[in-house]
């Protein structure tokens, strides 16, 4: 593990690596959060049913979740410097393909490629942080990553709505494809998997078999499955609103046009980095990660309960609830820190990729779930969906309450 007293050159290089990770994560966030703004005009031009909207939006997340286990193995085996550009090229292809799409199948394939292309960005950042920065700064760095990367999400709200009004929905994806190519090339030049004096653990895997045994070791950690229960709802509820269903809900329920919907979503995205910067320091101040997460999720389920049970809520109240959900969902940085602290460096990629797999799967499930419920009950589908989310949050809290914060003991056997 790197110490607090690092040479100035190492600190400078670590900062450059952080910037590259933040921009790459931000480009991924643009795609993840763009659904609520870009899917309605795509649906009108191409013709996509309401349940199809949910499938297309969720495809990105399911594709990313599908490869999280092999991504974790590859990161621990080959390192982020090789993995990021090798997989990132798929995101470029997907971005260009969606800009040229003419039917639902092409949109679906494009979203899948984008999900695969950005599937390694967050985990790569976590692996690099574990080797380039002191462990006490992990939660803070994760919060900074979320805050900086959320600029991409912000651009996917009101700014994207404005670009669509002026240039149509295809042009932004061509621009993002170009930006992704530039960042991949910079990453190849700048990123190094570890600082010069870093000593790799003897447990670093050298074969696929050792990588698999490492996963088994991660999954055998006491109460890890309890932590994963919270991971399932760590992103899904907020991203279902910001990334897909917030826009249609505001249009169907309150009659807001594209620009007005974009402003509400823009306000939500503004509070994402604020939430990340708020929760990051709490990890070091209170040193009780479970209490922080438990409190945050309790207030979140109350917000969803009000959305589901409240009658004739004003647009002001709904906006405030949406903004709070976007803010409080950033407790994920504390949950990720709890996961990171439980495992030694050589297992960080596989541990956090497992957590990320569950989190991304939760996003895909939530986005699809809204579409399924709306297809069954168009009139009250949104309210039923909000209440369904509240119920899932209650179950997750009960399971997570038995999670452990104890670190795994180092072992000499290869993993």
TrEMBL record:
Occurrences of domain Major facilitator superfamily (MFS) profile (ranges): 14-408
Protein name, as recorded: MFS transporter
Keyword presence, Membrane: yes
Keywords: Cell membrane, Membrane, Transmembrane, Transmembrane helix
Pfam families (UniProt xref): MFS_1
Source species taxonomy: Bacteria, Pseudomonadati, Pseudomonadota, Alphaproteobacteria, Sneathiellales
Regions crossing the membrane: 14-33, 53-75, 82-102, 108-129, 141-161, 173-191, 224-245, 265-282, 291-309, 315-334, 355-375, 381-400
Entry keyword Iron-sulfur: no
Localization: Cell membrane
